[in-house]
Design goal:
It contains four helices and no strands. With 89 residues, the protein is mostly helical. It has one domain.
Length: 89
């Protein structure tokens, strides 16, 4: 199997996860609150892991920032999910 860089692997994983989260919301398997909780938990985990060498600290803090940016990028979808939830109530 071909060897891929950590950047390529990480970028592919990010894309797959983002699309999975979008589809889980659209299919109403998870709602916006679930996805926000999952992303917030993942960001916090990286923030808590930001110890040790400066490189490890930077990697974890940058990852936490990226996860929080995903939350922001999914806001339009969260709004749609919230509207659907309210219309069903």
């Amino acid at each position: 199997m071909r060897q891929f860089s950590a950047d390529t692997t990480g970028f592919a994983a990010l894309t797959i996860v983002e699309i999975l989260l979008q589809e889980l919301i659209r299919q109403e398997i998870l709602d916006d609150r679930d996805v926000k909780r999952i992303l917030k938990s993942a960001a916090r985990r990286h923030e808590k892991s930001a110890t040790g060498s400066p490189a490890k600290i930077d990697l974890n803090m940058e990852t936490a920032t990226l996860i929080r940016q995903m939350t922001m990028g999914l806001k339009p979808l969260f709004k749609e999910a919230k509207k659907r939830r309210k219309s069903k109530a």
